[in-house]
Amino acid sequence: MRIMSYELKSGYVILNNVRFHARHGVMPQERATGGEFIVNLKAKYPLLKAVESDDVADTLNYADVFEIINKEMQKPSCLLENVAGRIGKSIFEAMPEVTAIDITVAKTNPPMRGDIENAAVELHLINDKTF
User: Fold this and answer.
1) Angle at 101 between CA 14 and CA 109, to 5 degrees
2) How many CB atoms lie within 10 A of CB 111?
3) How many C-beta atoms surround the C-beta of residue 18 within 10 A?
4) pLDDT tens across 12-44, in order?
5) Out of 9, 49, 107, 129, which one is annotated catalytic?
């Protein structure tokens, strides 16, 4: 589709470095005390209407995306893979126009020998209901 003097091939709504205190981990201590997690999410969404209208009703509201992430982060899991997958599934269910999601969930200061900023899982998810 052409708008003005350029073509919109794709659009994304992105949330960067969203921090949470959550209780994810395999070790009992991690689940008991919790720790800091960082979520980065990139959601592919048809943004042409919003580009033209300047109306929040025509876009993927990132506050709504945040609420879904927050809800899923509060449910303890052993694995970051499970957390990231649940977040993606919940977004696809609530927002079926989202066609793809790239999500990274990182645990800061993971319990291992070594000086490491974080350990993370990254998923690239495609909404099969949009094809």
Assistant:
1) 70
2) 12
3) 16
4) 999 999 999 999 999 998 999 999 999 999 999
5) 107
Residues 6+ apart with CB under 8 A from 26: 78, 79
Per the CB < 8 A criterion, the answer to whether 35 and 105 are in contact is: no
Task: Return all residues near 93 (Cβ < 8 A) that are at least 6 apart.
Answer: none
Which pTM does this prediction carry?
Answer: 0.91
The verdict on whether 89 is a catalytic residue reads no
Listed in sequence order, the residues at least 6 apart from 51 whose beta carbon sits closer than 8 Å to its beta carbon are: 3, 8, 11
* CA atoms of 13 and 41, how far apart (whole Å): 8
* Rounded-to-integer distance, Cα 91 and Cα 100, Å: 10
d(CA 67, CA 49): 23
Provide the CA 28 distance to its chain's centre, in angstroms: 26
